[in-house]
Design a protein that fits this description.
The protein is of the alpha+beta class and 172 residues long. Helix content is 30%, strand content 13%. It contains five helices and seven strands; from the N terminus they run H-H-E-E-E-E-H-E-E-H-E-H. The strands form three sheets. A three-stranded antiparallel beta sheet has the order 5-6-7. The protein has a two-stranded antiparallel sheet with strand order 1-4. About 3% of the residues have low confidence.
Length: 172
């Protein structure tokens, strides 16, 4: 299962998070990649001195083995990592802190909100191998992170909603 499906199953089963909230895909991802479950304590992962958090190379991390009792073994942890990498990015790296990302084509992100739950709308694209060359949408961030139990699926075609906004701005 993917992160989102695991979060949905936990939410459907009414399993609360540590703080009593709903599960999200990002929380599941963080758990699967958290080496603390192996009994490790890790410091110096990020450089907080420069603007924005910057991931340091693993060789710079300070890792203490057996800092506390492990709750899973190394074999299970590695199996989870392998399955995660296989499911995401075509088997590539699931987290590349040094990757330079181009500017997003979704210029309304962070501004446009879901009228049902109030979450920010986020950009999403269908596969470019589909019949029509893929489509771009703004999708409810609450739905994307926490599933349909949190918010019913709401999406807007990127080109359509951006054209409406542009037309409104021209009138003003």
């Amino acid at each position: 299962m993917g992160y989102k499906r695991i979060a949905s199953l936990l939410n459907e089963s009414n399993v609360p998070t540590q703080k009593g909230g709903k599960w999200s895909a990002s929380t599941i991802q963080a758990i699967i990649h958290n080496e603390s479950y192996l009994g490790r304590r890790i410091w110096n992962k990020q450089d907080y001195q420069t603007k924005g958090k910057k991931w340091r190379d693993r060789s710079e991390w300070i890792i203490t083995e057996n800092a506390h009792p492990a709750i899973i073994n190394e074999e299970l942890f590695k199996l989870c990592q392998q399955r995660s990498e296989k499911r995401h990015n075509g088997g590539g790296v699931t987290h590349n802190p040094y990757q330079i990302k181009p500017a997003s084509p979704f210029w309304l992100r962070g501004i446009f909100t879901c009228d049902k739950c109030g979450s920010k709308m986020v950009g999403n694209s269908t596969s470019t191998t589909k019949k029509y060359g893929g489509q771009k949408y703004y999708v409810c961030g609450g739905y994307m992170r926490k599933g349909k139990e949190f918010c019913p699926y709401v999406s807007w075609r990127k080109d359509r909603i951006e054209q409406i906004v542009v037309n409104k701005l021209r009138i003003s």
